[in-house]
Prior knowledge:
The chain is an alpha/beta fold. It contains 13 helices and nine strands.
Amino acid sequence: MKLSILDLSPISSNQTAKEALDESLKLAQAGDELGYTRYWISEHHDLPGLACSAPEVMISYIGANTKRIRLGSGAVLLPHYKPYKVAEVYNMLATLYPNRIDIGIGRAPGGSAEATNALSDNFLQQVWKLPDLVKELLHFLKNDFPEDHEFSKLKASPLPEVPPMPWILGTSKKSAHLAAEHGLAYAFGQFMSDKDGADIIQQYLDAFQPNKHGQSPQVLLTVSVVCAETAEKAEEIALSNLIWALQKEKGEGQFVPSIQEAKQYELNEKELEKLAAMKKRMIIGNPLEVKKKLEQLQASYNADEIMILTITHSPKDRIESYRLIAEKVLL
C-alpha cells in the first residue's frame, strides 16, 4: 500500500504561524525518511488556525530540505488564477526538484467571500469555466498547444525535463468526470465528504479516457487518521481536532485546542451527536487497528494510494502517528 501525507498546516493554541510552518517542514522531513510517497500542503486564505496561504512557497522551502518525497499542492485553487502563471510556478518547482512535483487542481474558494473577492474577479464564473481552465493549464504543462492557438508560441518557462504531475482533487461526480475526461489522476477527499466516495471513484474508473501519454487511471483517497500506541491514547489525542471542528462551526475556534482544553469544552446534546458523526468519518486507533481499517478502505474504494490527514495539538503526537502507521504498513 502506498501512503502519503496531507498537511493543512494547522496552528495550535500554543503556536505562532511561523512555528506551525516550521512543524510542516518537520512533518515532510519525517515523511521523507519513513517512506511516504508524497506530501501535499493545502491552500487557505484568512482562515483562523491555518497557516499556509501559498503552497508554492512552502513546496520550494520543503523541497530544499528533503530528498525524495514527492511534493505538491492540495490544491491549487485554479478559479483564482490564470493557468499560465500556475504552469510557470510549478514548472519552476519541477525544474528545481526533478520528478518530485505534483500539481493538485481544485475548485474551492479556500476562504471567506471577502477573501475570494480580494483574490479574483468573477469567481463563480471561473468555477463554471474550470474545465476550460484545466485544459489550458494542461496544454501549458505539456507545451502542446495546437499551431493555430493564440498561445502556440508561448512557453511556461522554464520547461522541466519531467513536467509536474497533474491531479484533479474533489469530492463530487463532476470532479471525477473531469479527471476521467482528461485522463488524469484523481484524489477523492473522503475526510471532508459525506458522499459515497466508492461510487464516485468507480464512476471515475468507468469513464476514464487514456490521454496521449498513456496514463492509466490512478486513485488517491484522503482520510483523517489519528494513531497512537493504544486506542485510548489515540481517542484522547483526536479530541483536540474534533472539538476544534465544533468550535469553528460556531465561529469560536481560532487555534487547535490542547487535549486539556478540549476535555474541558462543554458539549450540548446536539454537539455530542455531531462529534460522534465526525468520529465515524475518521480512523482512530492503535497501529494494528489503523492498518486494518486502511486496508479495508483501500479495498472498498479501489484506491491505489491512501493520503493521511492528521491534526493534533502536539506536533510530536502528529509525527508519532505517522511513524506508527509507517512502521506497521510501510517498513
